DNA sequence: TTGTAAGCGTTATCAA
DNA sequence: TTGATAACGCTTACAA
């Protein structure tokens, strides 16, 4: 790699002159600028970023710690994060916690050594289940900003970007009751331990209660044989006339199992799940979804974090990105 | 952030003594080591990585440029890459090209300034379609190693990790003909412009030819209304008795559309698609897939690249990670 | 208009 | 056993 020193030597001028010339300083004559730029171009000179980082004490890099990236929600969030980062000339260091506290902790510690200017994080499942958040607090004490999204922590004071989990499920359930005229609504979940899962279930229960209906919640945890469990439940409970799934998998499974049982969708059973752009295409009939604007969540997270760098005494904020009920005529009437 | 200098000042010893003590040098007395380590722990000292990078001229960071991460294949590859990186104490800077030549070029150039020790890349669709690869050559000239995976380039000399695209489709098609006794096999594709798509189609055509059958290829490009197109094709061609999809979407769509047309799967129509771990669960009946070991591809890519750093005169290699035909009794007989 | 020198936080060489 | 110093590549005050 070509350095300033090398250019200076070849041109028989000083390093600082070269530096200034490349930065188009008014102190330098046009002629020198031209000579310098030409040689730099010829030798494909690029200022060494590490040196710049050391000098300016800014890395222009954000550490992104995600629980997983095979879940399409987080994949799309990452897309949004990357897009916003690129737009503002930042890079992202990506770590996956695999939902494990230990990995999350390790990544956080390893990157808290000047590697990044800040973090964007969705908390690992294990950390949430065990309510173990000290590692976040420690980073904040070190004055490295953190932005939490989706799975956030009440007690940690920092910027947050969340989804209207409670509200969206509340409204979807209400829709099933009032517009679809359903009264035996099953909620299926494989994320009930997560903060977002709890909120979604609360949203469901609230409406159910308001309408004096019976609450039916099928908690699947992280089991392998989701299909079998759903099949059995639907088989054992023939009165169920609507399903609301609070993740992006089990809604599709419910449609498939209902059909296997000879139930007509949407005539016998209305189905609403969670999902993203391509989710509806994966089931037949196309599933109605509570569409989480994952890309926006990612973009806004990055934007909010970068904005916070600018203002001096920054006030922490919590941004809510509302989900959108996307109905398909095929799964609701 | 605490620095060596600060520690030195507080302890009234020199910076170099502190440095050596922290690195457990034999030159330093146990007593000093103890004092230093205790204070360092207390102040949560971490050696500044940027400074280390500048000093050693190694970033321990790999640039990863992916076309997209919402495609589950690339998401899972990324997972493998990250896992291997963490294992070897490397970080990854992730850039998404969004399948665009311009973004790919930009990321490559921006990171070729000492930000990374090497690259792992899957070529963007546009770069492949336009056969524009100069930007890769330029990076290699700068002596920054590149490892290409999945979508590789013949003319670029570097390490490569690929899938047996030709072979896997050849064998799957052969299976449909010989074991399933199908003779009107439709290949559906939405990736025919890609190198991997071309190879897969070749694999199909080879068997078709060997058996003197008719080649039926439905190219969808990147259209929106995939479902409609597939529906129409199946409707217009009632003789089709098997489908092989060379991506992870259209196979599921084919199952759904066939059912909509009243065709029985697998009795009337055998279906094999491409996919990953959770793909079969998304269709009913569960779809048989050519299972790409995306996680392994990611891991091996990282491992191969890091290995290449060690040996001096490294010989480029091309690693093939064979896909596995994963049959489900529900979509083949 | 150009050059000198200090400094960012480390590590490593050499001297004390 | 400890310390002074130079160096990595860059930027920037200050001097010439």
From TrEMBL, chains A, B:
Question: Any idea where the HTH cro/C1-type domain is?
Answer: 3-50
Tell whether Zinc-finger is among the UniProt keywords: no
InterPro entries in UniProt: Cro/C1-type_HTH, HTH_LacI, Lambda_DNA-bd_dom_sf, Peripla_BP/Lac1_sug-bd_dom, Peripla_BP_I
The segment(s) forming the HTH lacI-type domain are: 2-56
Q: Does the keyword Kinase apply?
A: no
Question: Mind listing the UniProt keywords for this protein, alphabetically?
Answer: DNA-binding, Transcription, Transcription regulation
One of its Pfam families is Peripla_BP_1
Molecular-function GO terms, alphabetical? DNA-binding transcription factor activity; transcription cis-regulatory region binding
Report what the protein is called. Uncharacterized protein
Q: Which organism is it from?
A: Winogradskyella aurantia
């Amino acid at each position: 790699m070509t350095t300033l020193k090398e250019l200076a030597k070849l041109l028989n001028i000083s390093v600082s002159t070269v530096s200034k010339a490349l930065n188009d300083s008014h102190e330098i004559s046009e002629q020198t600028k031209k000579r310098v730029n030409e040689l730099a171009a010829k030798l494909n000179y690029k200022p060494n970023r590490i040196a710049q980082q050391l000098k300016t004490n800014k890395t222009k890099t954000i550490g992104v710690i995600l629980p997983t990236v095979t879940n399409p929600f987080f994949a799309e969030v990452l897309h949004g994060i990357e897009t916003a980062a690129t737009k503002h000339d930042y890079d992202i260091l990506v770590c996956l916690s695999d939902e494990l506290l230990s990995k999350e902790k390790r990544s956080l510690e390893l990157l808290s050594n000047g590697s990044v200017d800040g973090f964007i994080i969705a908390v690992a499942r294990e950390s949430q289940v065990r309510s173990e958040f000290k590692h976040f607090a420690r980073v904040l004490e070190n004055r490295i900003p953190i932005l939490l999204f989706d799975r956030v922590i009440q007690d940690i004071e920092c910027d947050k970007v969340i989804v209207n989990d409670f509200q969206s499920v509340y409204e979807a359930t209400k829709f099933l009751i009032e517009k679809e005229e359903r009264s035996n609504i099953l909620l299926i979940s494989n994320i009930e331990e997560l903060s977002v899962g709890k909120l979604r279930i609360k949203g469901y229960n609230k409406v159910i209660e308001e309408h004096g209906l019976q609450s039916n919640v099928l908690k699947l945890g992280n089991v392998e044989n989701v299909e079998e469990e759903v099949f059995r439940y639907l088989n054992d409970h023939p009165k169920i006339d609507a399903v609301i799934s609070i993740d992006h998998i089990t809604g599709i499974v419910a449609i498939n199992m209902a059909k296997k049982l000879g139930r007509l969708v949407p005539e016998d059973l209305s189905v609403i799940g969670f999902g993203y752009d391509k989710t509806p295409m994966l089931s037949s009939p196309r599933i109605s979804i509570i569409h989480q604007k994952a890309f926006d969540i990612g973009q806004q997270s990055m934007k909010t974090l970068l904005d916070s760098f600018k203002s001096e005494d920054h006030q922490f904020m919590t941004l809510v990105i509302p989900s959108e009920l996307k109905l398909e005529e095929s799964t609701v009437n």
